[in-house]
Write a structure and sequence with these properties.
The chain has about 210 residues and is an alpha+beta fold. The mean pLDDT is about 90. It has helices spanning about 1-5, 10, 45-50, 55-75, 95-115, 125-130, 155-165, 180, and strands spanning about 30, 35-45, 80, 85-90, 120-125, 135-145, 145-150.
């Protein structure tokens, strides 16, 4: 996977954010390469599935798309954001067929194992740029070996709209072996204990 890792220099070479409170500082963000692929995955009907107590399944299926990309690229050092019932990632386009085959394996496993439909869309960043909706990326350094990505700009929301409305859908085609595509997949759930009987989770959308 050397060719992928060399293509990923865009992300690994970003000047990292060291202080979390600097996540809004513009100098840390760079526009993603025009020829990179924006991958969006979403568990269809996740709200109903969670209401039925299948939240662990939803999270596992959502995470499976990230694991598939990690195995396709041979590295975790690429920008992605996990949303619980899906993910958004930016990956180089030099072996799109391999990436698609690994994602198809994740989709097949989602339905065969959990009866959940994993919607998958792949959009070239240049398409979003033409729609005046580019994506900028920043890298927050957790420690010398680990980082997480921040995305900024209207492109992420537009890409999600295209996928959820099924304007952009990954076509049927060759699939990687599930044991190859999903190698290392796990969901280590542990209940969060509350001191006062309530656990509050806040999502802020700016």
């Amino acid at each position: 996977h050397v060719k992928f890792k060399s293509m990923l220099n865009f992300y690994s070479n970003l000047n990292p954010i060291q202080n979390f409170l600097d996540f809004e500082v513009g100098q840390y963000y760079s526009k993603a390469p025009a020829d990179w692929l924006v991958v969006v995955t979403d568990v269809e009907g996740s709200t109903k599935a969670i209401e039925e107590g299948k939240y662990k399944w939803v999270n596992l299926v959502g995470a499976s798309s990230i694991v598939a990309l990690v195995n396709a690229l041979g590295t975790q050092d690429f920008p992605f954001v996990f949303g619980g019932d899906g993910a958004t990632a930016l990956v180089p386009s030099n072996d799109r067929a391999r990436i698609e085959s690994y994602l198809r394996a994740a989709k097949k496993n989602a339905y065969s194992a959990f009866k959940l439909n994993l919607r998958i869309g792949i959009i070239q960043h240049s398409e979003l740029m033409r729609a005046n909706s580019p994506i900028e990326v920043a890298r927050y350094s957790i420690n010398p070996k680990s980082s997480i990505a921040f995305f900024r700009g209207p492109g992420v929301e537009l890409a999600e709209q295209w996928v959820k409305s099924e304007q952009i859908v990954l076509a049927d085609g060759p699939q990687a072996l599930p044991e190859e595509a999903l190698k290392g997949l796990s969901c280590r759930w542990a209940p969060i204990k509350s001191s006062n009987g309530v656990v509050l989770s806040i999502i802020i959308k700016k």
